[in-house]
Amino acid sequence: MEFRKIDKSNYWDCISLTVDDSQEGFVADNKQSLVEAAYEDVLYTLGIYHKETMVGFVLYDYDDTFSGWSMSRFMIGKQFQGKGYGKMAARAFLDYFKEKHNADKLYISVSLENTVARKMYASIGFEEIKEVEYTFLGMQFKEMQMVKEL
């Protein structure tokens, strides 16, 4: 797995990646993520590549809410799911992230209903911290905050 910045050469590949209909409430649309990253200085976007094909997307940032780094968005395109890319990419991102930022931990938040993702993150060493509830753009979210010591 390889990570490449989202730029003029690959943003169309990124916005064409979507999740399965059953997963839509679990992660923001990549178009929304790219717009947010264009206007907020602290958001970093990466395409997840398997060989020369973008198979997924990561958005991460330094979150002042808990004074730590957070992987805010992580997705694998529906056409690439079920091939082990999710776990492979998550592990590879941890290595990439630690090398680039020399951080000692990484936070994530996962929808309480997204049991598949919660199980996958737990299998690579993320630990559940607490449930959080918040409203964003008029929608209510309930998530499990998790952390991984690096």
List descriptors.
single chain, 150 residues, alpha+beta, four-stranded antiparallel β-sheet, three-stranded antiparallel β-sheet, 7 strands, 28% helix
Structural write-up:
With 150 residues, the chain is an alpha+beta fold. The protein is 28% helix and 40% strand. It is built from 4 helices and 7 strands; from the N terminus they run βααβββαβαββ. It has helices at residues 11-16, 30-39, 85-101, 115-123; strands at 2-5, 43-50, 53-63, 68-76, 105-111, 127-136, 139-149. The strands form 2 sheets. The chain has a 4-stranded antiparallel β-sheet with strand order 1-2-3-4, with helices on both faces. A hairpin with a 2-residue loop joins β2 (43-50) and β3 (53-63). The radius of gyration is 14 Å and the shape is globular. The two termini are 19 Å apart.
Q: Give me the Rg, rounded.
A: 14 Å
What value does the average pLDDT take? 93
Specify the helix fraction band.
25-40%
Q: Give the overall shape.
A: globular
Q: Uncertain spans, ≥5 residues at pLDDT below 50?
A: none
The strand order across the widest sheet is 1-2-3-4
SS-derived structural category:
alpha+beta
Give the beta-strand count: 7
**Helix/strand order:** EHHEEEHEHEE
What distance separates the N and C termini? 19 Å
Portion in strands = 35-45%
